[in-house]
Amino acid sequence: MWKKIEAAPADSILGLTEAFKNDTNPGKVNLGVGVYKDDAGNTPVLKCVKTAEKVLLEKESTKSYLPISGDPAYGRCVQDLLFGEGSEVVGSGRAATVHAPGGTGALRVGAELLKKFTAGAKVWISTPTWANHKGIFSAAGFELADYGYYDKNTMSLDFPAMVASLENVGAGDIVLLHACCHNPSGVDLNEEQWRKVAEMAKEGGWIPFLDFAYQGFGAGVDEDRYSVEQFAAAGIDYYIASSFSKNFGLYNERTGALTIVSPSKEESLVAMSHLKATVRVIYSNPPAHGGLVVSTILSDEQLKQQWLGELDDMRKRIVDMRSALVDGLAARGVDRDFSFIKDQRGMFSFSGLNDDIVQWLKENKAIYVVGGGRINLAGLTTANIDYVCDSIAEGLKK
Ligand code: LMR
User: Fold this and answer.
1) Distance (Å, rounded) from C-alpha 170 to C-alpha 375?
2) Distance CA 132, CA 263 (A)
3) Which residue's CA lies nearest to atom 4 of ligand 1?
4) What is the DSSP string of 321-362?
């Protein structure tokens, strides 16, 4: 069968990790995939996760199937984190959550479900966006459209362009938004801008689909849900794909969730029935372990506080590395102004390095950056920052 079929290209992010693993250069640095690393260059299991796993080892009594939507305790934890404890959305029962295999799984389940009922709709995606977004929604059969987001000249949000694009979104279309820590740019909307977008969604009758993979990496767990709250207050239908890969470090446990918010509890029950029908024909029911870890931590005040502390440490280390990179490049006499990197949020910086330099860094310095110039700041450490700054300074002179 495969004789006449061309091989598919490597994935632009995960394929880079494979290439990095095969690189024999001892000084290699991976600034590609969005995985947190500590200052020793490791991606450790969080301490709160280790403790929760010990508890589970003792207490877990079955490996029988979970319900299609996942463990209800996990669903409650997801909702409390998304909307805040005691929120109106949770209290009124107008949110339906299923445990999905990671943020990607949540996006795809959402896409499949939407496709059933909004077959003619377009999915609007920011320029730029996470490399996998287009693939996920086109694989579900959607036609895609782009909306303006990032201004390459000012390295910041082009809100007028975003608003102008959103004015063209048809009723019933879907707009994919990054709830915080925009991937790849690290450039977010401010509070007033989020309120405006929520207003536009309500007036335009389109469906916001929030990708919320980095809660806690922007300003903090509570601060980062601002966008989610604006759509809740608008009383409209919207979708949230969330993930515990980054903020709990549960990357390989595929622990995410898809939450649909509806204007009423009655509608939410209908949404849940279709969520379950959609999940059943894709993966039947979710893997348990990651969800059990999350609910064990979030339902124990001491473990929860420990988690929040560990998450703060991750966020602060990334902020420190932003400064170290900007200051390190300036100290090497690089005349291009990189200070915008300090204003970006989350794990990534859209560095402004073009694909020629990205390629040069990979081939000559074994420094791996995603095409388009996205740098994972968490890949920088006190041990490799000088090497990376030297290499970028050299590459910019070419
Ligand atoms: C990333 O953007 O690097 C991460 O979300 C990992 C992935 O699946 O691409």
Assistant:
1) 34
2) 30
3) 34
4) HHHHHHHHHHHTT--S--THHHH--SSEEE----HHHHHHHH
DSSP at 264: S
CA 157 to chain centre: 18
Q: How far is the CA of 128 from the centre of ligand 1 (A)?
A: 14
How sure is the predictor about 119, in pLDDT bands with cuts at 50, 70 and 90?
confident
Distance (Å, rounded) from C-alpha 46 to C-alpha 303?
A: 11
377's CB contacts (< 8 A; 6+ apart) are 31, 318, 321, 322, 325, 347, 348, 349
Percent of the chain's residues with pLDDT above 90: 98
**What are residue 157's DSSP bridge partners?**
150
Kind of pairing, strands 174-178 and 122-127?
Answer: parallel
The CA–CA distances, whole Å, from 26 to 7, 21, 42, 367 equal 30, 11, 15, 11
Structure tokens at 13: 């992010």
Who lines ligand 1 at CB under 6 A? Answer: 13, 33-34, 130, 132, 183
